[in-house]
């Protein structure tokens, strides 16, 4: 059985890491079952040689990091639907991953940071606060201040995604690809722990998110959230 | 002989449109020669049915718009090197084009707007000013104000491009693709009419730009600029 180590909240059935959702969706894309193992900030019990989730254990192979996991699945399970749409798809998808990493997720972070903090286990809160405040250059509370008023800037940040989804159902075109999962991971963070709605219902991104939630018999839609 | 209608400056040998550069580079990628025909804002003498440059005339076929031109070249000249790297490359490349259109070029625009304005033919300046000020919601001079101090925000905007180019020589991987040309077009605008340097020499994007200028026997490097 494949194993996937995932970041978990204070409630271990809440799994809110964008990177772990990339891996979870990539597994489902390939039609693979996996046993998910919760992991919390600061815990040390990850497979040898790895330090951060997601970690995939597939037989004797241990792979850390969502992108490496996706490449492993594509190579090890070539008969399932492609995650990338060939080499050209994989290489161009890297830009989309880079956008998700360097624009989308940091852009979402101030909107989510206090919601995430509320889900961090009490014993890991000091670590979380110190590491994130260092990265942000301000307190968590300062980062989150006035988030409702900042929603228009969030909508503007999403413009390339919106333009693509106005023309096709998925970032990957007619079918979802790993690029969709890299972007969707950030939206799953918002869904699982967020206490704010960030998309207007007439936004093409909203319709795409609904489709993503429905994939694989509603895998993502069934995930536990703090609100339900 | 293939013909390409291109935006030209008051000096008709200065060709500064990002979209036209996409088409020019795509033609060169396919090893195709084209006669370029200068066109100015407000002129009406484009091939029938078209309103905006670039316009490609290839035998009896007239194609408007850089993306449509690239798709035409890929289909009509399948034996040349692929512009997209297959269907998966084409579809994922659309996100990169959307980023170039909705983030990169609008982001560059305030830095370039007065430099562009200086290259618009006198009789087209009223049109240019009115249309751009409407889009910007401010005067050209207001948009350009304090541009040197805003260079750090420009560097931050380029983060996904920088992340990709830190790992591979081109957006398209080991070889340039149409995605490189869509991004490069914006940098050619800056090169041809700009009076400001926007990249630090140790930025991976700087090295990529040098490679792009060298492609096709220095096609882009040889383009006339206002500075030379």
Short description:
The structure is a homodimer of 228-residue chains. The first copy, chain A, is α+β, with helices and mostly antiparallel strands and 228 residues long. Chain A is 51% helix and 9% strand.
Q: So what's the overall shape of chain A? A: globular
Q: What is the quaternary state of this protein? A: homodimer
Radius of gyration of chain A: 17 Å
- Please count the beta strands of chain A (DSSP E, at least 2 residues each): 4
Runs of chain A in which pLDDT lies below 50 for 5 or more consecutive residues are none
Helix vs. strand class of chain A: alpha+beta
Count structural domains of chain A: 2
Largest sheet of chain A: 4 strands, mixed
Number of DSSP helical runs of chain A:
9
Q: Would you tell me the overall average pLDDT of chain A?
A: 95
- Write down the CATH class of the largest domain in chain A: Mainly Alpha
Question: How much strand content do the residues of chain A show?
Answer: 5-15%
Task: Write the element-wise H/E pattern of chain A from the N-terminal end onward.
Answer: EHEEEHHHHHHHH
Could you say what the CATH architecture of the largest domain in chain A is? Answer: Up-down Bundle
Distance between the termini of chain A: 30 Å
